[in-house]
Every structure is written in structure tokens, then in C-alpha cells.
Amino acid sequence: MTDFTPRVFSGIKPSGGLTLGNYLGAIKRWVDMQGQMESIYCVVDLHAVTVWQDPAALKTGTREIAAGMLASGIDPATSVLFNQSQVHQHAELSWVFNCVARVGWMDRMTQFKDKAGSNAQKVSLGLYAYPSLMAADILLYHATHVPVGEDQKQHVELTRDIAAKFNHDFKTDFFPMTEPVIDGPATRVMNLRDGSKKMSKSGESDMERINMLDDADTIAKKFKKAKTDPAPLPETLEGLKDRPEARNLVDIYAALSDQTSEAVIAEYAGAGWGRFKPALADLAVDKLAPISTEMRRLLDDPAEIDRLLGEGAEKARAIAAPILDRTYDIVGFLRS
Ligand code: TRP
Predict the structure, then answer these.
(1) pTM for the whole thing?
(2) Can you give the residue range of the structural domain that contains 102?
């Protein structure tokens, strides 16, 4: 097996704005990783169009995700930060992978089943092929580590299956076996009104999510009105087993304060919501309001964001182009 240089790749889709789920499940952890390994972070706009996007809103959304990454501490001098569609190699490698992946593998993807629901005949072909594009995003850079939320684990496993089948079919060890990195207390941030659903940027009520552009008052209000149950906080995490809303708030508190959920429960054992919710609201405002202020400042100058993304895309292409060329050679495409 070839040795691969440790390299991180991850991405966020610009369909709608940025939420606390994106921040805690992804961006905050990317910031921690960028000093440890070469890191590539991407606004995955090609993924967004698997469902129809208003063109003007797609552009705004792309800038908003980029601004959120920058405001949270992704440093474009240390990490590569760009939007996917500016590096055409993603789409090209995904075609090769469409011819490696099997229909049966795609049929097992739970995210597709959830999204398509009973409508599976009417969704785009792109939505079905989405995991193969995600594999291309990762393998185009020979990324070894992919920090993502819990819901993306199956897609990273599929990426490994695609890499293994490619390597096997072409008798090579060209693509690495990528590891998903799923750690920290908030790999799955839930909806504030319904603890059985993921916090999503597209849910119908704005009260169910924290947007990274929310101001301090809105953040505090949403946490104070978050759905809970009447019982106080238990002594141990075990006691939160069947209390998804309560568990979610404890996990969010832990992630925002860089502690484990166990430590938070130890501190607040026996506390009622009248004590815990205001503490959570204060903590969240403290950590998130500076990010939203900085995002707003960055978004006032869209040309500067576009310039940074363009520079990042150039750096990304410098890594991606030789890997795609080599892939084409392995497959047997004639290059004159
Ligand atoms: N599918 C991911 C999500 O919905 C986004 C994504 C696309 C991604 N390509 C990626 C994440 C590559 C990590 C690596 O959240």
C-alpha cells in the first residue's frame, strides 16, 4: 500500500444559509484540524443543484458559507478554501466514479432514501449520484481524513468502496482509504423544536434552528424557547437516554464550551431549565455573536470573498489536476 500524506477534505452545501449544525458538526472542528494537517475546505455548490436552486440565491448562499468559514477562523493562507464548481476536475472524476460505483450501492444510501421518500421516481438523477460526486471531492485530493457529521458516515464508507473497487479493477493502489473523522459532542445537532430531527437549514420554522447570521437577541430567544421536557437535568448522561431535546441542548452546551457532555451534566446535575437555558443562551451569544458580526462585515464586500475563493480554487486545481490526469491515464483515456 502506498503511503499517503495526511490531508483533510470537507465540504458544506450552499443550499440556504449556515446553521449551528454546520458550525458545531463541521466548521468548528475544521478550524481545530487546519493547524495539524494540510486542509482543503470546499463550498460544494455542485451538490446544491441536485435540487433546484434559484441562481441568484445560490451565489449569495455560496458567499455566505464562505464568510461563515472565514469568520469562524478558517485561514485562507493556511487552508485551501474554494467553491467546488471553480475546479472542473470534481465533475470529471465523478463521471469516472459513476462508472465504478454500482447501482446497488447507491440504493443503500439512507440519505437518498430519506430525501427522495416516496418521490424517488421524480427526484433528479444528480441526487441519486450525489455520493459518487462526494467520493470524487475527497479522492481528487487523495484526502485521508474527512471530518463530517454522523449523517455523512455512510457516504465516506461508500467513498472507500469506490476507491477499493477502482484500485482493484485497475490493479493499482492509486486511491487512499479515507477515514471519516466523527468526534466531539455535537456530531449531530438536532432541531430545537423536535429532537428527533436534524437541525436543517430548510425546515419550515425559523425557531427550530440557529442561523449563523442570527443576532444576539435572536440566538438567546431561540434557546430560551427551545422545546424541552419538564424534568430537571439528571445526574448522568444515561438519564438523558429518552430525552432527545434535553440531550441536544446539553451536547450543544458541551460543544460550545469545549467540554464533554459528561462534564456539563456533572456541573448541572439537578438543575431545572430555568437555570440551564439562560446559561446556554449566554454561552451561545458569547461564542456565536462575534462570528455573525464578522460574517456580516465580510458579506459587505462580496468582491473580496469572490477573490479569496478564486485564489483558493487555483490552489485546489494545482493539487487536483495531476491526480485527475493520472486517473485518466490509469483508465486508458488517450491524452495527446
Ligand atoms: N454531503 C455532505 C453533506 O451533505 C457535503 C459534502 C459534499 C462533503 N462533498 C463532501 C462533505 C466531501 C465531506 C467531504 O453534508
Answers:
(1) 0.95
(2) 7-181+301-331
